[in-house]
Amino acid sequence: MNDNRETFGSNFAVIMAMAGSAIGLGNIWRFPYIVGQYGGAAFIIVYVLASIFLALPILYAESIIGRASRSNTFKAMRTFAPRTGWHWVGILTIVTPILIMGFYGVVGGWSVQYLIKSLSFNFIHTSPDSVTNYFNTYITSDLAPLWGHFLFVASMVVIVLAGVKNGIERFTKPTLPLLMVLIIGIAVYSMCLPGSGAGIDYLIKPDFSKLTAQGVGAALGQSFFSLSLGVGTILIYASYMKKGQNIALSGLGTTLFDVMFAIIAGFAIMPAVFAAGLEPGAGPGLIFETLPFIFNKMGQTLPILSGVVSIVFFFSIFIAALTSAISLLEVGVAYLSEETRLSRRTSTIILGLFIWALGVVCSLSFGSLKEITIGGENIFGFLDNVCSNILMPFGGLLFTIFVGWKMPKPKVYEEFTNGGTKKFNRAIYPAVRFLMRYVAPIGIILIWLSIYL
Ligand code: TRP
After folding, report:
1. Integer Cα distance of 296 and 124 in angstroms
2. Which own/partner pairs from 134-142 qualify as long-range (CB within 8 Å, at least 24 positions apart)?
3. Are the beta carbons of 222 and 37 closer than 8 angstroms?
4. Most buried one in 265, 337, 387, 404, CB count within 10 A?
5. How far does the centroid of ligand 1 lie from the alpha carbon of residue 26, in Å?
6. What is the pLDDT of residues 154-190, one digit of tens each?
């Protein structure tokens, strides 16, 4: 099987594919509202540090396992640690993505709804208050959000059924840069709105007194979520890398791209939040209440342009969410179709159905099921929390321990430096190994202890 496994064409293609998975709702939707909940600039600093010192080493660990084995998680672990329990880590790579997709698909559905709304050029005529009301009425109703959700999940399943490589990759390459250009443009516009200064201050003047242990844990969770770590997504993508391609480079490129994108999204959203007089800690609805406000402001002077930008923007969010969703589904599908007798088609449909059903429950948890709370959160919030702050760091912890302590040392070195041929990789290898063996695992455990003790 290894011989006819598909591979990416170039380092650039690898970075685009990984960045396509990494850049998604995590950057545009989740990052701004988590920053708002945990107090702004101080949180961002911790997030950047966590991305470099804890998340990047784990991205490297997953890349090393993936490319060294060129197979799914179960098989990879079995190759390097036969007759141990390590391959059970593979379970995490099936269960966690389904749980993530449960709530991710709901937000994907919201983006579908907002795209459809934009198509009618409706948003540019609404006031900030009615935008917020619209969002609240929309998500708390039972049936309305299920349409968008269904369309989102169905698109994901159709694309994975049709084969990821040709369809989606060709689609992502132009839309990702477009999204980048749009978000920069919106950030500039947003920072020029009257009253936006407070939002800029909020993002650049750290107030460490507001930073709690929970906040540090959330920064860790955000860096994992945003880089698609701990559930085997990066592992699977790296398994499609060629031997000559450069793990150090693709990892660094993906991380830089992703962090930059999140921060720019912060500058697109936060100044507008303050300009609109909204609450930065408003939670998951933040961008859905802020963006229409921006478009509506723009619409007062430039109605056509703002209508078009709004359509293109929600479309790009939808695509960015879809490319990430596909990578989440791909991990489970790769596993089921390679390790069980199920075909790729059946695996996709089964997992798709699970994801759809769980998504319906998550969506209803803003409506009819809102009375059901776990630890003070509705089902949606609970799943997000458990996945991002516990399951993903846990998976990442196992991957990094595996590469740091279990996998044969020469193999790790060979994979990371391409058999010693890459000078830069050789130079940073000792530091990366140190980060993988000590800093990342101890960091994750310390952060957990500070939260739960
Ligand atoms: N990283 C994506 C985002 O920011 C979401 C995602 C894709 C993901 N694959 C993942 C999150 C794997 C966790 C694990 O939107």
Report:
1. 4
2. 134/292, 135/285, 135/288, 135/289, 136/285, 138/110, 138/113, 139/110, 139/285, 139/363, 139/366, 139/367, 140/366, 140/367, 140/370, 141/367, 142/364, 142/367, 142/368
3. no
4. 387
5. 7
6. 999 998 887 656 666 676 667 778 888 988 998 998 9
Residues contacting residue 82 through CB under 8 Å, at least 6 positions apart? none
DSSP string, 392-435: HHHHHHHHHHIIIIIS-HHHHHHHHHTTTT-HHHHHHHHHHHHI
Among residues 327, 311, 326, the alpha carbon closest in space to that of 154 is found at 326
Q: How confident is the model over 195-208, as pLDDT tens digits?
A: 999 999 999 999 99
> Does residue 283 sit in helix, strand or coil?
coil
Q: Please tell me the residue having the least CA distance from ligand 1 atom 2.
A: 22
Rounded-to-integer distance, Cα 325 and Cα 153, Å:
9
> Which ligand 1 atom is nearest residue 321's CA?
15
pLDDT reported for residue 167: 60
The DSSP H or E segment spanning 255 is helix 247-275
How many whole angstroms from 384 Cα to the centroid of ligand 1?
12
Q: How far apart are CA 453 and CA 447, in angstroms?
A: 10
